[in-house]
Known about the structure:
- The relative contact order is 0.14.
- By secondary structure, this protein is mostly helical.
- It is built from 16 helices and no strands.
- It is globular and about 60 Å long.
- The protein has two domains: about 190 residues, Growth Hormone, Chain: A, CATH 1.20.1250.20; about 210 residues, Up-down Bundle (Growth Hormone, Chain: A), CATH 1.20.1250.
- The two termini are about 40 Å apart.
- It is about 85% helix and about 0% strand.
Amino acid sequence: xxxxxxxxxxxxxxxxxxxxxxxxxxxxxxxxxxxxxxxxxxxxxxxxxxxxxxxxxxxxxxxxxxxxxxxxxxxxxxxxxxxxxxxxxxxxxxxxxxxxxxxxxxxxxxxxxxxxxxxxxxxxxxxxxxxxxxxxxxxxxxxxxxxxxxxxxxxxxxxxxxxxxxxxxxxxxxxxxxxxxxxxxxxxxxxxxxxxxxxxxxxxxxxxxxxxxxxxxxxxxxxxxxxxxxxxxxxxxxxxxxxxxxxxxxxxxxxxxxxxxxxxxxxxxxxxxxxxxxxxxxxxxxxxxxxxxxxxxxxxxxxxxxxxxxxxxxxxxxxxxxxxxxxxxxxxxxxxxxxxxxxxxxxxxxxxxxxxxxxxxxxxxxxxxxxxxxxxxxxxxxxxxxxxxxxxxxxxxxxxxxxxxxx
Length: 407
C-alpha cells in the first residue's frame, strides 16, 4: 500500500504544525502552572515547601508511568482519538483542580491530570513520524517542541501573575480554560492518521525489548543523565521562588513568575548546540554544557539579585543543551524499538522531576538555599561522571563496529 506523506509548504502541513504547537502549549502549561504557586500552597495549607512541591512532583511521576502504557495502547486504538481525549480531559481536570477545597483534593486532581496528560507526549512523535515526510519532519518537530517551551513558560508566568492579583484558584482555572481553547484548535486542525496501521498488543515482545534496552550500559547512562538533569532543573526553580519572595529581596509573586521567562534561553541553546555537536561531537559538547549548568548553579549562591538571575540563565542554557544531546543520543544508540527507548528516557526524565523536586524541599527545610544548591551540584557532578563513562562505552562500541566491518 502506497504511503502518502505530507510535505512542508502544503496546507495540511501548516494545519498539522499549528495543531501540534497548540498541543505542546496545552500539555506543558497545565503541567508546570503549579510550580510558581508553591509558596501560596505553603501559606494556605500550612505545609512544608517539600509538601508544596507534590502537586508538580506527583503529576510528573504519574505522567511518566502513564506514558509507557498509553503509548503502547495507541498502537491498537489509533493516534488522534487518544490525543484529543487526553487534551480535553487534562483541560477539564485542570479547571476542576481550581475548586479543590483542601490540599488532599488538590493532589488527587493533579494525579488525574498526570494520567490524562500522558496521551499527548507519548503519541505526538509517533504521529508526526508516520504522517510527515522525512525532509519536513525536523520543522514539524521543532514547532511542536517550540509549543512545549512556550506553554511551559506561559503556564508559569501567567499563573504567577494571576495568583498575585487574585488567587491560586483563579490561576489554575485560567490555565485550564486557555488549554480548553488549545484543545479545540487541535481537534479542528489535525487531520486523521493516513498511514497508521493498528497492531495487536503484544506484552511479551514489549517486555523483552524493554529488558534489552536496560542491558545496554550506554543507554542506561543516558536514562540516568536525563533523570539527573530534570531533577536539578525542577529543584532549582521550585525553591528559588522562596528565596526571592523572602528577605532581603521581598519580590512580588508577579516578578518571580516573570523570572521563568529565562527558560526561553533553552529554545536558542538547543538549536545552537545542534550545530556545535555537528562540528565537535556529542561527548565534548555534553561535557561543556554540564559545566556551564554547574557554574550557573553555584552563581545563585551569590547574594546579588543580578548574579542569581545570571546563574539561572547559565544553568538554563546548560540544562536544555545537555537534554537535547542526551535525548537525541538515545535515538541514535538504540538499534531497535527506538520509540520505546525514547519513552524509557522520558520516563526517567520525568521521574527525576518528581524525585529532585521533592527531595530538594527536604534539603531546603534542613539546610536552606545552600543545601538545595549542593544537592543539585551532586546531581550534575554525577551526570558528568556518567557522561565520561558513556564516552568510553561509545568509543568501545565504535572500535567493535569497525572490527566487525573490516572482518
